[in-house]
Design goal:
This protein is α+β, with helices and mostly antiparallel strands. The protein is 36% helix and 17% strand. The structure holds zinc ion. Residues 214, 218, 233, 236 line the site of zinc ion.
Length: 422
Amino acid sequence: MRAGDAFVGDAFVTDRLAQPRGAQWVVSWRVDAGAMADAHRDVDVALRAGDAVIVNDCNLLLRPAEVPPDTRITVRVAGEVLLSAPWLPGGAPRTYTLSAAALEGGSYLVFGPQRALDVKVPGAPVSAVAVGRPGRAGDAALTTWVSRSAGMSARFGGGSLPVARTLVVVVPWAEQSDPGVFGSTLRWGLGSAVLFYGAEAPAESFAADWVAPHELFHLHNPDVVHRVPWFTEGFTTYYQDVLRARGGVRPPPVAWKGLLDGFRHGCATDQRTPLRAASADMRRNHDYRRVYWGGACTAFILDVALREHTDNRESLDTVYRALAAESRGPGGALDEAGVVERLRNALPADHWGRAWLHASLDGRAALPVGELASRLGVSVSGEQARFDDGAPWSHVRRAILEEPVPSPAPARRPATPPPPPR
Ligand SMILES: [Zn+2]
């Protein structure tokens, strides 16, 4: 749908209002969200969940063809049907204010019967609602699940999330026994996520879930133009595992086993297609594991290189947050080349990490991740990883799963000789 189009029932309405700058328009309209859900059955348009309807507000709000970035939009929702939105309260009942960025990026809304979950994330305004029939685990388990996952994500941001408010909607998936089944996150100015969980999943299984930590980490993603899945999905895949270990839900031996297994598919075996090409073509080749774990491996290489080079004073945490902040600044979203340039430039010209970054993105040969792992003092043995604290970079290995690195550090020391990529 183009900006400026409004979706009403089954018809796209594209008539535009001529709008001189500075003028104030009040536009009222009705939308049949239920009919939209019946026609599309897609969470990114509208979807029924029990007696509620989840709607992406991009398909609900009229959008002028051009919205100057400093525009404040006031939305008043008529009627009495129950509504949850991450929109900011506008001072009157059912009245909200929206920034231009939030209007552009969209948010998930929930209309109709829903149960508020008492989610608490210190330092971050996060609310959550459950729709549909309660699953086997019960709402208390869902509340813990969302609180814990959002808390892990906030911890990466130094105790907060980079959005003004976040709404999480949890939806049962019939006959599924995995705790997290699928999710989708919107994150421009306001955060909203829809998490589908297995209706048959037992309460105790939610602690091991990766879907919610993955989706809620997406709130930290730098803004990129076009899709760059190796970066957006790959780095999120790396952090979904790192954050769970930092959050204490995955002990380091299990976390490292998971990471090294993932890298085996992503970058530690020869590949038919270089990562960047596989990523650009992912919608056609559906090679998600390669792209997600190839990107996760790229993130891992950079994290190790940055930490090794600065004795843990810098890490991917700091570089990633700086990239995200830059992408939300006046220069706007970065393209793929801009992302690669900034990642590369985070390391000195002669650092081994640069050669590895290049080999990871554009090479076909397996990367010697095993060599890197032995420098870190980690190897897989059965269902767990084993550690060797005598390894030269064991301080790097330990720090990766500890607290996020808070701030950039000044001094760099010379690069240690590189383990060369093949
Ligand atoms: Zn994702």
